[in-house]
Structures are given as structure tokens and as C-alpha cells.
């Protein structure tokens, strides 16, 4: 009997039917990544409902030498949560571990399981008048465990930091099935190494995050959301700097997108409304928040905005007058990935550069790419205030993505090199997964890669936890 068959027999004997699925049809919805680029079979999909069950499953996998792919909401954009080719693997989906274990409005903390959907965590915090500040366009599907494993960023990093900044403690099932209970809820704890940092952003290669203690913040009592139409990335940067200088940490978001991204949203997402009568080359979406319900945010910004309009740094501007209008403006930015998927997808990149370099980098990429992939359409958008741009290269009209992928190597090499030469990174918030393993090998120093491998060897000596993700298997 082969190893997979023996494993499946032992699985069926050891766990209740609700704790796994072997059915080929059911497995399909766990095997393909969000972008539809990778779709490899898993031996089984395991569906634990408690930390102890996760630990028992991991021990069973270790006993049979079965590799594990931890899976959250499967919204990752680098195919980290789905199997790799030619390798017997099981997926451990965390979707049944979705309890909020506790919430403390004095300590301002919440203990939540790895499979809690991000939006549910935000809602639980809001129910006690607190803010859980991580916010992404995928928040209706992605899990807390997935956002920790990827150190997710999103639209409010500017003010509140990425997921790493929200985590105070973790509970993790290690590759040998041991449970590490590190669910501390302290802001200060210098007792030896801060082990939770190892697991944050490790993309499931050191263990399965079953629960976390996260910090909560006071909830802003008023917000001001504005969309500015601009001619160039330079003007976007100038607007950002002016608003940030005036508002400091009250500026919670500063997002950039171009007319191409806006057109995709208007054409493909129902109920999206054009914000201006005419089209402009680019847009900046800014949001300012205050804990003071009587703060006059518009009054504070008005003189400076008037000056920017007067000297034509900003060509036109809308200010949301209601929550409905605010959400409508956000839809124009947050709907871009979904709209891009609707037109067939793109070669996607997620770079970060020093904020001051953004205009030059956008110019260099825009000018250079047409030589690399003639006829391509560039869809650049992202978190301008964090220096983080999603540089998506859409095939020419009428060309399928599968056909356009023949340009992937040249396109990727050009964009990554441009970002790195500007002192930036080729992956700002999406991570490495299985799509960027070669880039990691190329751009991180040998000493860094050796350190990463040493840590992997120590925690997961047989490399059975999410093999082929982040680090190259060939060693
Ligand atoms: C429309 C859209 C918008 C997005 N916007 C943003 C954005 O603004 N900022 C951003 O950072 N990302 C963004 N993303 C990417 C994605 O949503 C994030 O990476 C998110 O954190 C992934 O969470 P997930 O639960 O879906 O994880 P998955 O996709 O399921 O998994 C991601 C990685 O984490 C590992 N993993 C998952 N759960 C666990 C666990 N419990 N324990 C250990 N490892 C685990 C997986 O093995 C995999 O390597 C976006 C994606 C989409 C589709």
C-alpha cells in the first residue's frame, strides 16, 4: 500500500467524518489559488475544530511523512496556501476554528482563533466600541491566521502598522505536533527571545497558528474621506506629504490608483459610480480620522486643500458627505483586484520603495515595460503612504493571460530589478508563497538565506510544513 493510502486509512480511523474531506469534488474548492494560477491535488483536506485536533492531525502527518499545507481564507496572491506540484500533501484548512475566545475591554485585547474571518474580528471589536485596525479588500474572506502568517498590510498601515504590530501572543501547533501556548496579552515582555515574531510572516512554514491575542484600539469617532484627481504620481506624492504633515497619525490611509484601474472597476463592478465628470490620469484616496467626535476635520484641511486646488496640484476633488458616499469611494480603490480578475487577470507584482522614489519608479516602469511586453496595459495602484505599489501588467486587449505569460520572466525581472535598484523590495505585503521563491533566492543575501534555512531546519527538520513555499526545496 502506498504512503498516501495508509495515511488516509489512519485518518478515517482516527477522526470523525466532519474533520476531513476526501471527496474529489469537495477538495476542488481548497486546491486552487485565488488567482487560478495553481491547481494541484491534495491527498485530503483536514478540517480541525480545536487546537488539540490540529495537534493530533499534525502528529498523524508526521507519523506518515505526509507534508502539510496550512490554509486560511485562500486569498493569498502568491499561492502559499495550496499544494505544490508532484508532492503528496494534505491541506489543513482552519475554517472550522472560528471562535472568539475572549475580549477584554480594559486590557484592550481579544483572543481569537486562527480561522476567524478578519471582518468578524473587526465587528467583534466594534461591538465593544473598539477598533481592530487591520483592513484589506479581502477582509470578508481572509482569516486571522492567514493575515498573521503573511504579516498582512492593507489600507491602514500608515497609522496603525501591519499585522505584526497587532499581535501580542500566539498559540501554534509545531511541525512535530507540540502545542506552543504563547497566548500572552502583554505590551512588554523581554523574557528571552520574542518567539511569536518567528511565526508572523512565516507563511505557514514553521507551524499552524491556531489562535492569537491581538491588541484593540480606541475607535475613531469621525472620519473624513476624500478623493483627489491628479495628473501625475509626483502630484500624488506632494498631496500625501502636505496632508501627512498637517494630520500626522490622524491620516490613516493614502491610496493611489490610475484611470486604467478606475475604468476596470466602473466597467465590471455593479453599482460603482464615476467620481468625476471627466477622467484624470490618476487619483489619491485619503482618509483622516479622529477620536474626537466634534473634530472639524474638513475645517482643518480646507485651507491647504484650497491651495492645492488653486495651484493645480489637485485637479478636482470630492469629499464623502455620508457613510454611503465614503464606501462608494472606497469601492473604487478596493474593487480594483476583483475587477482585474473579471477581465482575465494580470502578471502581478507587489513592490515597495522609499516613498520619495515613487514618481521616478512609476515613470521608469511605465516607460520600460512597453519595450519588455509590447502592448501591455499597466495597472498600478496601492498604498502610496507606505511606499507600496501593486504593479500589475495586464495583457493587451484580446490576448489571454495564459498566452501573455510568455512575457512573465522578462516582465518580472524588469519590475523587480527596478524596485530593488531604487532601494526597495519585490514583495511588500504578499509574501513569497510558491510564486516568488526564485526571486527570494536572487535578491536576499546568501547569509540571510542561510539563516532562514538554519531556522527552518531547527523547527521543521524534515521540511514537511508547507514545503516549497518561501525557501527553495533544492538544497
Ligand atoms: C482582493 C484582494 C485584496 C488584497 N489586499 C491585500 C492588502 O491590501 N494587503 C495584504 O497584505 N494582502 C492583501 N491581499 C492578500 C491576502 O488577502 C493576504 O495575504 C491575507 O493575509 C491572506 O489571508 P488568508 O487567510 O486568505 O491566507 P491564505 O491565502 O489561506 O494563506 C496565506 C499563507 O498563510 C499560510 N497560513 C494561512 N493560515 C495559516 C495558519 N492558521 N497558520 C499558519 N499558516 C497559515 C498559508 O499556508 C499561506 O502560506 C489581498 C488579496 C485579495 C484577493
Structure, explained:
This protein starts with a helix and ends in a 16-residue tail after the last helix. The mean pLDDT is 96. The protein folds into 4 domains: 3-93, Uridine Diphospho-n-acetylenolpyruvylglucosamine Reductase, domain 2 (2-Layer Sandwich), CATH 3.30.43.10; 100-218, Uridine Diphospho-n-acetylenolpyruvylglucosamine Reductase, domain 3 (2-Layer Sandwich), CATH 3.30.465.10; 222-337, Alpha-Beta Plaits, CATH 3.30.70; 344-436, 2-Layer Sandwich (Alpha-Beta Plaits). It has a 5-stranded antiparallel sheet with strand order 5-6-10-8-9. The chain has a 4-stranded mixed sheet with strand order 1-2-4-3, with helices on both faces. It has a 4-stranded antiparallel sheet with strand order 13-14-12-15, sandwiched between helices. The protein has 475 residues and is α+β, with helices and mostly antiparallel strands. A hairpin with a 4-residue loop joins strand 17 and strand 18. Helix content is 37%, strand content 20%. The protein is globular.
Amino acid at each position: 500500500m502506498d504512503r498516501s493510502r495508509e495515511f488516509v486509512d489512519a485518518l478515517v480511523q482516527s477522526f470523525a467524518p466532519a474533520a476531513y474531506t476526501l471527496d474529489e469534488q469537495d477538495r476542488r474548492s481548497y486546491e486552487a489559488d485565488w488567482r487560478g494560477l495553481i491547481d494541484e491535488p491534495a491527498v485530503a483536506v483536514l478540517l480541525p475544530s480545536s487546537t488539540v485536533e490540529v495537534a493530533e492531525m499534525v502528529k498523524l502527518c508526521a507519523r506518515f511523512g505526509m507534508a502539510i499545507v496550512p490554509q486560511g481564507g485562500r486569498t493569498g496572491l502568491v499561492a502559499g496556501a495550496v499544494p505544490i506540484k508532484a508532492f503528496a500533501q494534505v491541506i489543513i484548512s482552519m475554517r472550522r476554528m472560528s471562535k472568539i475566545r475572549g475580549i477584554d475591554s480594559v486590557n484592550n485585547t481579544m483572543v481569537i482563533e486562527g480561522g476567524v474571518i478578519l471582518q468578524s474580528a473587526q465587528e467583534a471589536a466594534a461591538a465593544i466600541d473598539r477598533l481592530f485596525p487591520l483592513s484589506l479588500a479581502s477582509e470578508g474572506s481572509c482569516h486571522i491566521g492567514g493575515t498573521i502568517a503573511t504579516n498582512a498590510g492593507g489600507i491602514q498601515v500608515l497609522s496603525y502598522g501591519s499585522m505584526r504590530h497587532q499581535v501580542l501572543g500566539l498559540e501554534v501547533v509545531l511541525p512535530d505536533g507540540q502545542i506552543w501556548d504563547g497566548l500572552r496579552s502583554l505590551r512588554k515582555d523581554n523574557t528571552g527571545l520574542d518567539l511569536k515574531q518567528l511565526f508572523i510572516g512565516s507563511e505557514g512554514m514553521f507551524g499552524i497558528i491556531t489562535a492569537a491575542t491581538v491588541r484593540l484600539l480606541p475607535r475613531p469617532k469621525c472620519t473624513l474621506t476624500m478623493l483627489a484627481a491628479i495628473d501625475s504620481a509626483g502630484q500624488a506624492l506632494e498631496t500625501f506629504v502636505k496632508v501627512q504633515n498637517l494630520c500626522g497619525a490622524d491620516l490613516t490611509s493614502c491610496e493611489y490608483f490610475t484611470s486604467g484601474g478606475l475604468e476596470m472597476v466602473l466597467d465590471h463592478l455593479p453599482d460603482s459610480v464615476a467620481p468625476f465628470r471627466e477622467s484624470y490620469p490618476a487619483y489619491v484616496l485619503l482618509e483622516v480620522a479622529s477620536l474626537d467626535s466634534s473634530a472639524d476635520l474638513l475645517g482643518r484641511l480646507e485651507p491647504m486643500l484650497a491651495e492645492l486646488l488653486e495651484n493645480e496640484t489637485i485637479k478636482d476633488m470630492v469629499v464623502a458627505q455620508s457613510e454611503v458616499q465614503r464606501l462608494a469611494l472606497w469601492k473604487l480603490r478596493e474593487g480594483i483586484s476583483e475587477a482585474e480578475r473579471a477581465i482575465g487577470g494580470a502578471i502581478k507584482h507587489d513592490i515597495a520603495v522609499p516613498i520619495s522614489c515613487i514618481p521616478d519608479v512609476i515613470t521608469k516602469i511605465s516607460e520600460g515595460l512597453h519595450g519588455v511586453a509590447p502592448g501591455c496595459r499597466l495597472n498600478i495602484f496601492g498604498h502610496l503612504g507606505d511606499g507600496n505599489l501593486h504593479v500589475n501588467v495586464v495583457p493587451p486587449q484580446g490576448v489571454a493571460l495564459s498566452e501573455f505569460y510568455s512575457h512573465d520572466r522578462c516582465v518580472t525581472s524588469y519590475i523587480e530589478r527596478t524596485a530593488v535598484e531604487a532601494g526597495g523590495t519585490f514583495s511588500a505585503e504578499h509574501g513569497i508563497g510558491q510564486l516568488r521563491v526564485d526571486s527570494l533566492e536572487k535578491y536576499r543575501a546568501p547569509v540571510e538565506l542561510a539563516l532562514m534555512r538554519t531556522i527552518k531546519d531547527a523547527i521543521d527538520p524534515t521540511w514537511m510544513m508547507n514545503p516549497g513555499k518561501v525557501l527553495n526545496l533544492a538544497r
